[in-house]
Fidgetin-like protein 2
Amino acid sequence: MHWTPEHAQPLNQWPEQHLDVSSTTPSPAHKLELPPGGRQRCHYAWAHDDISALTASNLLKRYAEKYSGVLDSPYERPTLGGYGDAAFLNGAKGDPDPWPGPEPHYPLASLHEGLPGTKSGSGGGSGGLGGSPVLAGNLPEPLYAGNACGAPSTTPEYAAGYGGGYLAPGYCAQTGTALPTPSPAALLQPPPPPGYGPSGPLYNYPAGGYAAQPGYGALPPPPAPPPTPYLPSGLAAPTPLPAPAASRPAPTSYSFQAAAPGAEAGMSLKRKAADEGAEGRYRKYVYEPTKAPAADGAPYPAADNGECRGNGFRAKPPGATEEASGKYAGGIPLKVLGSPIYGPQLEPFEKFPERVPAPAPRGGFVLPSEEPLKGVDPGSLELVTSKMLDCGPPVQWADVAGQGPLKAALEEELVWPLLRPPAYPGSPRPPRTVLLFGPRGAGKALLGRCLATQLGATLLRLRGATLATQSAAEGARLLQAAFAAARCRPPAVLLISELDALLQTREDGTTATGALQAPLLACLDGGCGAGADGMLVVGTTSRPAALDEATRRRFALRFYVALPDGTARGQILQRALAQQGCVLSERELAALVQGTQGFSGGELGQLCQQAAAGAGLPGLQCPLSYKDLEAALAKVGPRASPKELDSYVEWDKMYGFGH
Ligand SMILES: Nc1ncnc2c1ncn2[C@@H]1O[C@H](COP(=O)(O)OP(=O)(O)OP(=O)(O)O)[C@@H](O)[C@H]1O
Ligand SMILES: [Mg+2]
């Protein structure tokens, strides 16, 4: 047999093969060229034709085995030229150890880079698909597929090609586990752009989510959009969403929201908004205890020149809330009592832009297209406009003591959806009706005013009890006029307090239920229906059980406004007493808070007034003392009995949305 290795191998490989050829019988043609002393040990770099058949057979077998793994490898191999022949000539022929040669000449970008768990760095070299299959094929079993760390190989297809060959001894490509199998989609992903770490997240959106729309106060400025290189081409940036709903607990079985006409799909029925530890989250809800003293003793100072802002509110008097002290008069911080944060958490006025002229429609809270005044009695409309338009100062979340979870719920389920633009055409309408129920004086109307402020809306107030004193026809006319007036001033909040009075049986035997309920339901359907987007109806009642199902279901959201807890009572008292120039010691205030358990905010205000009256200080020339308050405590007490409070909790479980 006449055989030369050139017949079987490419030219650039045959010198290596000849390093294997240890023939001791050089060809006669070469004998003369060999140094005499080295003849017996010399390895020829070229073939000679008198090789034995056995040697030739062994050679064939050996190289067939050696390269069969390479040829069968499922991975795309780099061109051999990329590594240079020198890599194969580096004296490591058949070496079972990891390849000790130089780094590849080209920085081969491994497709595995960017996959989770992939380690980048020089130690790994181009161990991915760019690794040398030849070398991998040379490696003994334990070095395959990251087994340098002794991890079990779970991905057999990686064994041949996944570059153990370039792993330095001891390098662990995966910590204790084999590299996860890449999905076909991942393999099709383009490599990350230069400058971004391969193991970084593909999207790097802010953890806190997106800020609300401009115009909504107390939220941080919107974060910068994610850098465009992070967005795969062709993909639009996701629509900003409000706070994550995923953290909300599952609704309880009592909720009626799914059946309510205004209840929107996707809105959680029950939620626990109290994230007690997250102070920053409720920072803006923190009560601002001190306002500028009212000149006339009214709950809100009238030092605003009577000027009514475009949104129906007047600005707070400058510095009205700036003087909040972080402690009780005696020096105990309210945090000691479990308050979230207490201090001057102020909302700058700039966050409540003037609405003159009316701003462009915002989000779902847009201008109605219908003619709102059609068929409305002009006299009633005039009456409503002059008597019901609320021009009080704006009420921020921080102006409401306590009620943190409720405030968060109102904001997340009402304010944000109303201010947020619809995500897509035909997306669910935000709720247009909310019912606040709870004991008298608990702050339901205050929260209604706060909602109007947060929405930048005109506020119209209607008292059910007042309406119920009118004749049925007049009451219905006023009701329609109130809805029409609200609709023609969008965005508007119509606050109907004492809603239950509209549905009660009168003492004279005539029942308003039939007379006023029908117009009320019609107004709720029409005024808050699909055609009227610019208004929100806030109904309040201290007798939720008096509401029949039809009325109840017209309110898409129903929230329980509970009595203030000890911390909130302390804050309300401190504010009320500060307005009267009264400074109590820490112990006195703590005792007063203890003695006013079960008081509503309204009753705390009455207590302070009673103390002033009892002290003979109608003009509030002298500060109140603790003794005056003690005396007043004997006369003013909480109105809501424990039984009543229990009934609210029960009603909340049945029909409320919890918070
Ligand atoms: N949480 C509170 N923080 C500060 N002030 C409060 C709070 N709750 C009630 N008040 C004060 O108590 C008074 C009565 O509040 P409001 O009118 O809102 O109660 P209400 O629940 O609407 O009562 P009603 O059922 O009688 O209509 C207001 O002066 C309000 O400022
Ligand atoms: Mg009220």
In short: Residues 566-649 form a domain with the Helicase, Ruva Protein; domain 3 fold (CATH 1.10.8.60). The chain has 20 helices and six strands.
